[in-house]
Amino acid sequence: MSQLIKKENYQLACQIFGSGDSKLLAFHGYGQENSIYQNIAPAFPNHTIYSIDLFFHGKSEWHDGLDSLNFAYWEKIIKDFMFENQIDTFDLLGFSMGGRIALITASLFATKVQMLYLLAPDGIEINAWYRVATKFSSLQHIFKYFTHSETNIYKKVVKNLGKYGLVHKTVLKLAETEMATPKKRRRVYQTWMLYRFLEIERKKLAEIFNKHQVGVKIFLGKYDRLIHIQTVKSFTHLLEKSEIEILDCGHHKLVQAVMEKLSSSYEGSYIRK
Predict the structure, then answer these.
(1) Rounded to whole angstroms, how far apart are CA atoms 21 and 42?
(2) Which is higher by pLDDT, 116 or 262?
(3) Contact at 8 Å (CB) between 88 and 40?
(4) Residues of the chain with CATH 3.40.50.1820
(5) Rounded to whole angstroms, what are the CA distances from 56 to 16, 105, 239, 246, 257?
(6) Which of 46-50, 179-183, 198-202, 234-238 has the lowest mean pLDDT?
(7) Contact call for residues 125 and 202 (beta carbons, < 8 A)
(8) 2-125+199-265 CATH fold
């Protein structure tokens, strides 16, 4: 079932899967849509899953300024979503960039969340290129120029980054895919700039999760070159309730691998009853 919540400054699109009593809010990764979780129900048989489009993805729209989405605003968005769907408590799931949104949401609603499922999550450690491009006003103009230019000047920059070993070839391939057209490049700029204030230090996250006994289950891909296990371990070592599982796949195959793993092998052993 599809849902569209329209407010003055935004539109939030969601697809609802399953019919369990427990609730699960799921956030996809960059460049994806909420349909990525359409086969998720067998992995969470006790949940109703609300798969939410990130802004500038799918049918979710943002009508306010790119400087306006902060913790307070995001908290209000989730509260409105909970009200619309009559949700009191919920679990969270997030893949890649959606993992960062899930982390932030869990920190804001720690008293409402029992389990947090993270798939190769961004947000445990903010990428240096992301921070440079979005946090320094002088460099924001350069970032905007590269992403709004109708030429392919960015390709020369990316090529040189790879040539001198500053960026892994997997990241280069991803950059080429997600910045192949002017429309895609503008979405990179809009998304990165909009969500740039939604980050929190791992020690603060750990303090919140430990205080409220939020369980954290993290899945990683063995061949993932975007999210590294040591970065994740530096976070889970701070947590009282956490677990890491490494699957035999890369970054972009992880969602499917996790769904298959939970559905067939574990038969709900990681799912809150």
Answers:
(1) 14
(2) 116
(3) no
(4) 2-125+199-265
(5) 19, 19, 33, 30, 26
(6) 179-183
(7) yes
(8) Rossmann fold (3.40.50)
Tokens 């369990």 -> residue: 20
